[in-house]
């Protein structure tokens, strides 16, 4: 037996590694040091970084034995004697922590660097951390935090906080504060689902179809059942309840049964629970599968042809979505110029750093508890109960921390499968996806083909827009209809267009399902319209800013769907602010001219601009509701409870701020409990940039009710009118007395009342598409400018600068907002330049992280965030959503800039440098 | 179905060779493991009985100068190469190549020996060493021999020695003299696989008047193995660099390279185009490039 002696966090350790054991497994499984995270198990992401004799190494593919005699430091060992390492301190203060999954890796990689080079500059930091990925992507903030830590190490002085200033010294709204979960996320204590272990827990694996279209004709699991250590193998026949799931339509089989159809490679055929993950994996190989293959459809346009084989019983059309406004024929007749373009966008992948994990745990009372990092806990509960044949009250979903979601954790992943196995075995079951399974299974961004025709008067005023979209929703509906509806309604951009006609076909194919992904369809249509608008501007000899200003939505204007905008439209201000920033940077008025670079004749630089809008909330007539509870305790603390997901965006901080403001208590007295279907009321889905608005409102109103109850009680006791009672910082001032909130709790209880309120917030009513009314209750607006550098010889494109102006209504949480803007911009850069989920006939080429490139520190430009505040009347303190809008204009701003830099129009995403270089060459040859 | 059964940490080459011998073909040398382990984990390489980790063999970590040659141990990590003043002085192209490999964490464990032994046609380290006219010392149980890098590759993933029997101990190449310089460049694709679309390393000796007295050019992927562009070198030798000589050189280069379209990575046409761009840049003094 091999032995391994080494030091971990200065503690001598001696163990006997099993063959094939990696260092990460020793740290996480044996030593319970779960601060070291696994994002990929393939040396790509950096989440698993630890220090080995002071150097940063990746522990996931590092044989444990290789650490013999070495000193290992993990995130848990970085603080000394209870004092945080300056990096940990700086990460908290600067808001570098978002979902937190990558943070241990970031800190350890940075610790190795600062250990030898505390004065490292931005370029050095970016280069040394280039393969430590953060999908929340607050890269600029990460760099600033690392620099602040370096300065502190160098000088011995305390870490300097961020330059960002609070909006006001009086109010908590807009205050620069650290997130409530920042500490646990920098010291390694934060628990994500895979970090939980329960006694007797089994490990599950799922047999996937691995073929895109077929009929399952044979499935033999007997050999797998016989493997020692295998406890249970389940197939479709074993399902007690309904064998399907889906957020909107239940068209996705939980397990494909014999005689049934396989519609994409990720379809589940059998479930294994075993004493270890290794055994479960071996068992999968013993299952015999037979299928009759069917022709594979991967193109949504071909899927719509009459003779196309039907993927679902009702054919391949999920939904034909239309928008009609005015009379486009008349509109085009009035136009002086008509331009048309076809644009395509690829499938892209959320690539949250934390792969999906679910743990199902049966309770002695016969209930089922599911631990999962999910975006919609209540929808999970319904879907699990349905398949298990349980009442919904018998299922409890306990939300764990979510290591990023971006829309990709709205559908069921492993929740139902883990629960089925737990139900059958009566033991806790963990189902962890490896990165490959994560890439295979969850719904992604719709590949979309968009044909737009725009008509304008010679002065640039738009008169007509006609658009046709084909969205590839893959094998199952997921949120496909909703996503493509958003693509359709937003297809003319944030502009006034009197005559509009849009047809969108959301088509089933045999590709992996497409569903929610930050931007929700608008990312795709914005690329098309913003590109064509620039082409139109050029055609008319009008400046790209001017054409946008001229047509911009404003108060009093009507959207595509005929909604009259009556307030909170900050678009023009966004565009103006971006313009003056470019002017400042360029130093002259020819803002979009290509510029050369001294001494580097191969480079061209230019700016480009784009604008966008994005709804907050579900809209379209769907009742949008959020319930929150606020409770005051005798110790003066306050608990806020709602089932809304914290997926990195900082919702916990937002709710803490809102509750403290509404109740007039110090922020540190407020705890936020999220996403436990037993303990927290339904906050609805965390989607559509809706939680700041929805949960924010629910919490605000609940807090106000609690305060009213306090006022009533105190008024009676002290015999003063309630309005004479002043609430300040956790104290009620009555008649010269200052009574601590905690003492008011006693008073309320003595009267038989609770110091608690539940509020069900209903968003302003919206109307279905086609009725012409208010389709959404609020919209956020943004304009962004990108400065790119094109290497005209190699076709390489780099983004040097992004200016992002965003109308968010009202800033609640400035650090969280900055994180959303930086992260959104980085995703937009990825969408333009690096990201493409590559499929070959329904099979994955992008089958691991190494084949799906997302932006790293090296792709990070200087990002200037400008916040514009046009409050919306019904938003909490005027706030509306920001999660998606920040990401939408980035891509077209970049592709428009590429055009100004080198004269080549990008019509297909992501930018193909190979094609671009050859196009530039052709162009130069003909000139 | 373990990825490996035994993980051994020998302290000397003889010990390691003995372990390989005992492994009877199912033992394999491992250095950083950044290629080999991923190949095993992702089923491109069968599981092995024993992994023989050579990174604790002092002889294989040494970087030194002896007379007019530089010696670089096969177990030297890319980060050690980057930080080494001797190599910064004498092997700029290798330092540059190593600095571009992976991220910091990978460079802390991945070795130059592993890069070469992995024998990819566009291994960045291999391409740099090829331009340096390096040789590799291969130790077997019975002997040690020096093989010129050009002869070290049989084809993709096929080195001309047997990592289940033999060890690549170290590399050697001449020190850099007055008038000599080296350079390394590569172009990557921002999407998909992170393997160079094209990389190129050169070593040049120029006269005071700027005449190319001697030159070595290495390119990948331009065939099944890292390519020394001998015809192109010949076309440039004895000439001053100008548009005429460069376009002749590009002609020669196109003739002796076998460029392919690799799906999701690059078209042949783009690679052809890049050949001339990169060759031009070897002489054109283009400024620092951004990387990904
Ligand atoms: C994220 C990432 C990025 C990467 N980026 C690049 C890149 O940009 N450019 C690039 O070229 N490569 C890159 N690689 C590939 C790899 O890291 C390098 O090729 C590295 O140098 C391999 O060294 P190693 O020590 O890890 O080799 P190992 O994986 O240990 O070994 C590789 C092969 O060589 C054999 N071997 C190793 N050492 C010896 C020896 N001394 N004697 C005999 N046989 C030996 C092994 O048996 C095995 O067959 C990357 C890898 C990863 C994971
Ligand atoms: S988990 Fe190790 S690099 Fe991703
Ligand atoms: S904070 Fe980095 S991945 Fe979320």
Describe the structure in your own words.
The complex is a heterodimer of chains A (927) and B (292). Chain A is of the alpha+beta class and 927 residues long. Chain A has four domains: 31-59 and 70-189, [2Fe-2S]-binding domain (DNA polymerase, domain 1); 202-294 and 353-404 and 409-441, Aldehyde oxidase/xanthine dehydrogenase, a/b hammerhead (Aldehyde Oxidoreductase, domain 3, Alpha-Beta Complex), CATH 3.90.1170; 448-618 and 770-926, Aldehyde oxidase/xanthine dehydrogenase, molybdopterin binding domain (Aldehyde Oxidoreductase, domain 4, 2-Layer Sandwich), CATH 3.30.365.10; 625-762, Aldehyde oxidase/xanthine dehydrogenase, molybdopterin binding domain (Aldehyde Oxidoreductase, domain 4). Helices cover 29% and strands 23% of the residues of chain A. Chain B folds into three domains: 4-53, Uridine Diphospho-n-acetylenolpyruvylglucosamine Reductase, domain 2; 60-174, Uridine Diphospho-n-acetylenolpyruvylglucosamine Reductase, domain 3 (2-Layer Sandwich); 181-282, CO dehydrogenase flavoprotein, C-terminal domain (Enolase-like, domain 1, 2-Layer Sandwich), CATH 3.30.390. In chain B, 33% of the residues lie in helices and 26% in strands. Chain B has helices at 13-23, 36-41, 78-83, 85-90, 92-100, 104-109, 112-118, 124-131, 230-236, 243-256, 268-284, and strands spanning 4-8, 27-30, 48-53, 63-66, 69-73, 135-139, 144-148, 153-155, 158-159, 167-174, 180-187, 198-206, 212-220, 227-228. Chain B has a five-stranded antiparallel β-sheet with strand order 4-5-10-6-7. A four-stranded antiparallel β-sheet of chain B has the order 11-12-13-14, with helices on both faces. In chain B, a hairpin with a 5-residue loop joins β12 and β13 (212-220). Chain B is globular, with a radius of gyration of 19 Å. At the A-B interface, β4, α3 and α23 of A face β1, α2, α6 and α11 of B. Bound molecules: flavin-adenine dinucleotide and FE2/S2 (inorganic) cluster (2 copies). One FE2/S2 (inorganic) cluster binds next to loops of chain A.
């Amino acid at each position: 037996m091999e032995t391994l002696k080494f030091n971990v966090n200065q503690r001598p350790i001696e163990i006997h590694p099993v063959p094939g054991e990696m260092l990460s497994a020793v740290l996480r499984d044996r030593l319970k040091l779960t601060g070291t995270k696994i994002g990929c198990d393939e040396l790509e992401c950096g989440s698993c970084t630890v220090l080995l004799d002071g150097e940063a190494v990746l522990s996931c593919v590092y044989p444990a034995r290789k650490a013999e005699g070495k000193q290992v430091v993990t995130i848990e060992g970085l603080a000394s004697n209870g004092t945080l390492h300056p990096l940990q301190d700086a990460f908290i203060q600067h808001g570098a922590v978002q979902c937190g999954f990558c943070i241990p890796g970031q800190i350890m990689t940075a610790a190795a660097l600062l250990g030898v080079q505390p004065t490292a500059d931005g370029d050095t930091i970016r280069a040394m951390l280039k393969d430590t990925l953060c999908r929340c992507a607050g890269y600029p903030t990460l760099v600033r935090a690392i620099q602040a830590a370096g300065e502190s190490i160098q000088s011995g002085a305390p870490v300097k906080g961020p330059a960002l200033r609070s909006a006001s010294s009086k109010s908590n709204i807009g205050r620069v504060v650290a997130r409530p979960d920042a500490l646990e996320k920098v010291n390694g204590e934060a628990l994500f689902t895979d970090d939980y272990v329960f006694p007797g827990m089994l490990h599950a694996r799922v047999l996937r179809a691995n073929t895109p279209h077929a009929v399952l004709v044979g499935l033999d699991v007997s050999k797998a059942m016989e493997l020692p250590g295998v406890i249970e193998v389940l197939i479709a026949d074993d399902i007690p309840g309904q064998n399907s799931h889906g957020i909107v339509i239940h068209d996705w089989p939980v397990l494909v049964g014999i005689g049934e159809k396989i519609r994409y490679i990720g379809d589940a055929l059998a479930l294994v629970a075993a004493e270890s993950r290794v055994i479960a994996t071996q068992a999968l190989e013993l299952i015999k599968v037979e299928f009759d293959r069917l022709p594979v459809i991967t193109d949504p346009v071909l899927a719509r042809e009459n003779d196309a084989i039907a993927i679902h019983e009702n054919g391949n059309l999920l939904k034909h979505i239309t928008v009609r406004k005015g009379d486009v024929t008349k509109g085009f007749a009035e136009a002086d110029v008509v331009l048309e373009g076809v644009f395509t966008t690829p499938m892209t992948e959320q690539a949250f750093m934390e792969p999906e994990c679910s743990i199902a745990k049966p309770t002695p009372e016969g209930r089922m508890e599911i631990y999962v990092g999910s975006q919609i806990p209540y929808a999970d509960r319904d879907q699990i109960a349905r398949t298990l044949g349980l009442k919904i009250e018998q299922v409890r979903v306990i939300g764990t921390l979510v290591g990023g979601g971006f829309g990709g954790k709205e559908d069921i992943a492993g929740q139902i499968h883990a629960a089925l196995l737990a139900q059958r075995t009566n033991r806790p079951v963990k189902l962890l996806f490896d990165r490959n399974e994560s890439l295979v299974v969850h719904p992604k961004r719709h590949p979309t083909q968009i044909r737009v025709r725009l008509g304008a008067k010679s002065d640039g005023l738009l008169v007509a827009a006609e658009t046709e979209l084909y969205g590839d929703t893959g094998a199952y509906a997921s949120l496909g209809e909703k996503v493509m509806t958003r693509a359709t309604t937003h297809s003319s951009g944030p502009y006034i267009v009197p005559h509009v006609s849009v047809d969108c076909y959301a088509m089933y194919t045999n590709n992996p399902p497409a569903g929610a992904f930050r931007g929700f369809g608008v990312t795709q249509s914005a690329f098309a319209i913003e590109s064509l608008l620039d082409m139109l501007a050029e055609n008319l000899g009008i400046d790209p800013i001017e054409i946008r200003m001229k047509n911009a939505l404003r108060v009093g204007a009507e959207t595509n769907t005929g909604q009259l905008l009556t307030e909170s439209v900050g678009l023009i201000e966004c565009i103006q602010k971006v313009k003056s920033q470019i002017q400042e940077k360029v130093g002259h008025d020819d803002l979009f001219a290509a510029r050369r670079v001294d001494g580097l004749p191969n480079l061209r630089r230019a700016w480009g601009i784009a604008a966008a809008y994005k709804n907050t909330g579900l809209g379209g007539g769907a009742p949008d509701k959020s319930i929150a509870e606020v409770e005051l305790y005798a110790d003066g603390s306050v608990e806020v409870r709602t089932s809304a997901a914290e997926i990195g965006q900082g919702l916990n901080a937002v709710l803490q701020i809102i509750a403290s403001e509404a109740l007039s208590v110090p922020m540190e007295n407020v705890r936020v409990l999220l996403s436990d279907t037993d303990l927290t009321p339904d906050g609805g889905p965390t989607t559509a940039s809706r939680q700041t608005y929805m949960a924010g409102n629910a919490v605000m109103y609940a807090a106000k009710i609690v305060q009213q109850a306090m006022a009533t009680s105190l008024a009676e006791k002290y015999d003063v009118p309630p309005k004479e009672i002043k609430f300040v910082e956790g104290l009620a001032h009555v008649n010269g007395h200052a009574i601590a909130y905690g003492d008011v709790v006693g008073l309320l209880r003595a009267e038989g009342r609770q110091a608690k309120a539940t509020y069900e917030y209903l968003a302003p009513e919206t109307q279905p598409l086609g009725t012409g009314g208010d389709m959404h209750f609020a919209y956020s607006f943004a304009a962004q400018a990108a400065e790119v550098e094109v290497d005209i010889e190699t076709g390489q494109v780099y983004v040097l600068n992004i200016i992002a102006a965003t109308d968010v209504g009202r800033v609640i949480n400035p650090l969280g907002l900055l994180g959303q803007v930086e992260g959104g911009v980085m995703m937009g850069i990825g969408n333009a330049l690096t990201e493409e989920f590559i499929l070959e006939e329904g099979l994955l080429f992008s089958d691991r992280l190494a084949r799906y490139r997302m932006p790293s520190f090296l792709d990070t430009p200087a990002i200037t965030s400008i916040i514009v505040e046009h409050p919306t009347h019904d938003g909490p303190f005027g706030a509306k959503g920001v999660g998606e809008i920040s990401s939408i204009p980035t891509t077209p701003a970049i592709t428009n800039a590429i055009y100004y830099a080198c004269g080549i129009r990008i019509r297909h995403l992501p930018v193909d440098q190979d094609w671009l270089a050859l196009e530039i060459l052709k162009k130069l040859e003909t000139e | 179905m373990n990825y490996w059964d035994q993980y051994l940490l020998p302290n000397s080459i003889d010990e390691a060779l003995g372990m390989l011998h005992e492994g009877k073909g199912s033992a394999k040398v491992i250095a950083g493991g950044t290629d080999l382990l991923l190949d095993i984990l992702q089923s491109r390489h069968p599981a092995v009985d024993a992994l023989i980790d050579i990174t604790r063999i002092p002889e294989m970590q040494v970087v030194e100068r002896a007379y007019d040659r530089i010696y670089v141990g096969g177990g030297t990590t890319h980060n050690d190469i980057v930080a080494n003043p001797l190599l910064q002085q004498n092997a700029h192209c290798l330092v540059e190549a190593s600095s571009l490999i992976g991220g910091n964490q990978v460079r802390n464990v991945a070795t130059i020996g592993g890069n070469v032994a992995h024998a990819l046609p566009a291994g960045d380290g291999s391409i740099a060493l090829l331009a340096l006219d390096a040789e590799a010392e291969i130790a077997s149980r019975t002997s040690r021999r020096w093989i010129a890098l050009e002869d070290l590759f049989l084809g993709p993933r096929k080195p001309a020695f047997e990592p289940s029997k033999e060890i690549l101990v170290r590399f050697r190449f001449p020190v850099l003299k007055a008038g000599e310089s080296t350079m390394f460049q590569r172009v990557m694709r921002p999407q998909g696989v992170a393997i160079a679309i094209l990389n190129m390393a050169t070593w040049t000796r120029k006269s005071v008047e700027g005449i190319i007295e001697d030159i070595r050019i290495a390119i990948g992927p331009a065939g099944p193995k890292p390519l020394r562009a001998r015809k192109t070198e010949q076309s440039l030798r004895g000439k001053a660099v100008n548009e005429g000589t460069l376009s002749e050189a590009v002609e020669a280069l196109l003739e002796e390279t076998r460029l392919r379209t690799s799906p999701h990575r690059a078209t042949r046409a783009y690679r052809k185009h890049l050949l001339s761009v990169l060759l031009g840049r070897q002489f054109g003094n283009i400024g620092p490039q951004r990387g990904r």
